Every structure is written in C-alpha cells, then in structure tokens.
C-alpha cells in the first residue's frame, strides 16, 4: 500500500507530460477513453470479487455504491487528467478497504477515508511546489 501511495505522489511530477505525449501519439479521443477503460476494469474486478467471495457480498455491494457515484461524477467531467486522478484515489480506497476486510466495516471505512484524505492532501501540497502544476485544495 505504501508503494502505491508513493507512486501517487511521485507521479504528480510527470503525469501531465505523459498524458500530453499520449495525446500526441494516439489522439485526444483515445486519451479520453482511458478513464472509462480503467473504470470498466475496476467494475470487472468487483464482479470477480462478488463471484469469488459470496460470503463477503456485503463488502462488494458497498464497493459498488461509491463506484456508481464515481461513474456519475466522471460522466460530467470534461478533463481526462482529473478523471484519471479520481480513479487513482478510488483504487487506493478500494485496495485499503480490501486489506482491512477482516475489521469491522465502520473501522475499515474510517481508516480508509482518513488515509486517502491525508494522501490527497500530501499530493496537493507536493504539487504546489512543482512549477507546472497547481496545488488546489478543491482537488
């Protein structure tokens, strides 16, 4: 988990350049499809979990609620950069919840929300010091 958090923070330095390069290579329309491909992959993963862990169906169904909310939120966003950013943090939250599946739901959710929030704050603070990025509390 710590490695993925480090990746989120470090990727802030090169993510925009990588997306610009991809836009140049494959075009804007292909880059706009990336968040939807990632989201679809995540939903397939949730379906696999549902099939594999029928006894833990409550956890999977609870994961589908934020996934549906993210889908509706992503649908209204125009910027693929921000769509991918939201997916990254959603994946972090999903992995944390999965790691904490043996704990009570209330405790797991509280710890996960706190750690994802702190990671997002650290990410925005880090971006504030990058010359071509903006650290914005609204992000």
Which secondary structure elements does this structure contain, and how are they paired or packed?
Elements: H1 2-11, H2 15-26, H3 28-52, H4 57-76, H5 80-99, H6 105-128
Helix pairs in contact: 2-3, 3-4, 3-5, 4-5, 5-6
Describe this structure in words.
With 139 residues, this protein is mainly α. 80% of the residues lie in helices and 0% in strands. The chain contains 6 helices and no strands. The chain is globular. The two termini are 22 Å apart.
Spell out the key features of this protein.
139 residues; mainly alpha; 6 helices; 0% strand
Low-confidence stretches: none
Rounded mean pLDDT score: 76
Shape: globular
- What class would the helix/strand composition place it in? mainly alpha
Described by strand count, sense and barrel closure, the largest sheet is: none
Work out the strand percent.
Answer: under 5%
> What is the ordering of alpha helices and beta strands?
HHHHHH
Q: State the separation between the terminal residues, measured CA to CA.
A: 22 Å
**Helical segment count:** 6
Helix content: over 70%
Spatial extent as radius of gyration: 16 Å
Q: What's the short version?
A:
This protein is mostly helical and 139 residues long.
């Amino acid at each position: 988990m710590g490695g993925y958090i480090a990746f989120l923070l470090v990727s802030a330095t090169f993510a925009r350049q990588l997306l610009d390069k991809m836009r140049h290579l494959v075009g804007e329309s292909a880059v706009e499809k990336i968040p939807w491909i990632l989201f679809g992959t995540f939903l397939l993963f949730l379906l696999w979990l549902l099939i594999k862990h029928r006894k833990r169906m409550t956890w999977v169904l609870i994961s589908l609620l934020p996934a549906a909310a993210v889908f509706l939120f992503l649908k209204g966003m125009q910027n693929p950069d921000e769509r991918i950013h939201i997916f990254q943090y959603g994946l972090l939250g999903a992995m944390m919840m999965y790691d904490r599946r043996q704990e009570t739901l209330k405790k797991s959710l509280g710890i996960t929300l706190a750690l994802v929030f702190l990671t997002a704050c650290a990410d925005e603070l880090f971006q504030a010091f990058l010359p071509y990025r903006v650290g914005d509390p609204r992000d």
